[in-house]
Amino acid sequence: MPIYLYKHPETEEVIEIIQGMNDEHIYVDEKGVEWKRVFLGSQLNTESSIDHWNSNDFVEKTRGMKGSYGDMLDRSAELSEKRAKDHGGVDPLRKKYFEDYSKKRGGAKHIKDPSRKKPGGGIVDINFD
After folding, report:
1. Number of folded domains that form the chain
2. pLDDT value at position 64?
3. CA–CA distance, 99 with 70 (Å, rounded to integer)
4. One domain for residues 51 and 100
5. I need a labelling partner for 33 at 20 to 30 A (CA). Which of 22, 66, 67, 103 fits?
């Protein structure tokens, strides 16, 4: 159940009261004094403030993140898009990853590498006509 804050109208004392979301949000103490409800600003999610150039920042802020592996991949893709916007449409970290991948595998290209030959341009040509 959520916690709501109430402030005494005279003493300015603030207390926390546990109430249901659908309850009437009024608090009257044992002396019959009705306390005023304190409204707070919304709580912001700090996960959105990951520095898209700092891999350590990504690791630290996603370490305790709830969600699936796919959620983390989606977050990583968002950061890649931000880096690409900063560099004229090409993410330099992604480009370097594809280059290193190709070097380690004797020139073979990663399946998601944009410089890879398109289907139909290789040894085998597939035609569905």
Report:
1. 2
2. 75
3. 24
4. yes
5. 22
Report whether 56 contacts 35 (CB < 8 A): no
Show the tokens assigned to 70. 């796919």
What tens digit of pLDDT does each residue of 51-92 get? Answer: 777 778 777 777 777 778 888 888 888 888 888 998 888 999
Question: What tokens appear for 90 in the block?
Answer: 């090409």
Tokens of 20: 């249901």
pLDDT at 4 over 70: yes
The model's pLDDT over 31-45, given as tens digits with 9 standing for 90+, comes to: 999 999 998 776 555
> Are 84 and 63 in the same domain?
yes
Q: Where are the beta strands (DSSP E) in the chain?
A: 3-7, 14-18, 27-28, 34-38
Q: Cα separation of 62 and 34, whole Å?
A: 44
Domain that holds residue 15: 3-38
Distance CA 116, CA 124 (A): 15
SS3 breakdown of the chain: % helix, strand, coil, rounded to 5? Answer: 35, 15, 55
The verdict on residue 75 lying in a domain is yes
Strand, coil or helix: what is 128? coil
